[in-house]
Amino acid sequence: MEQIVGEYARKAGIKASPHTFRHQCITFLTRRSGLADAELQLITGHNRRETLAVYQHVALDADLEGKYQAAMRGVDL
Fold first, then answer.
1. What is the DSSP string of 64-75?
2. pTM to 2 decimals?
3. How many angstroms separate the CA atoms of 23 and 17, rounded?
4. Closest residue by Cα to residue 68 from 26, 13, 40
């Protein structure tokens, strides 16, 4: 998966990895799904709430999330 994503990213002239998509998905789910932290932990496979919080920080700050989403839209995948 790393090689596939890396090859597409290279062709697109961007920096991306499977982790990039994981982060985007968790940010999206945190902001829009209404799932509880415990449910997100199950979906993402995180054992500790603190680990999940690393991903959630963007979604919980509206200004930062707006900038992040704008940057992700600019990736043009």
1. HHHHHHHHHHTT
2. 0.57
3. 10
4. 26
Which sign, positive or negative, has the C-alpha torsion 20, 26, 29, 31? negative
Highest mean pLDDT among 3-7, 48-52, 71-75: 3-7
Distance, first Cα to last Cα, the chain: 16
Q: How far apart are CA 50 and CA 71, in angstroms?
A: 25
Query: What is the SS3 assignment for 22?
Result: helix
Identify the top-confidence range among 4-8, 13-17, 42-46.
4-8
In the chain, where the domains are located:
2-73
Helix axes 18-32, 2-12, angle to 10 degrees: 90
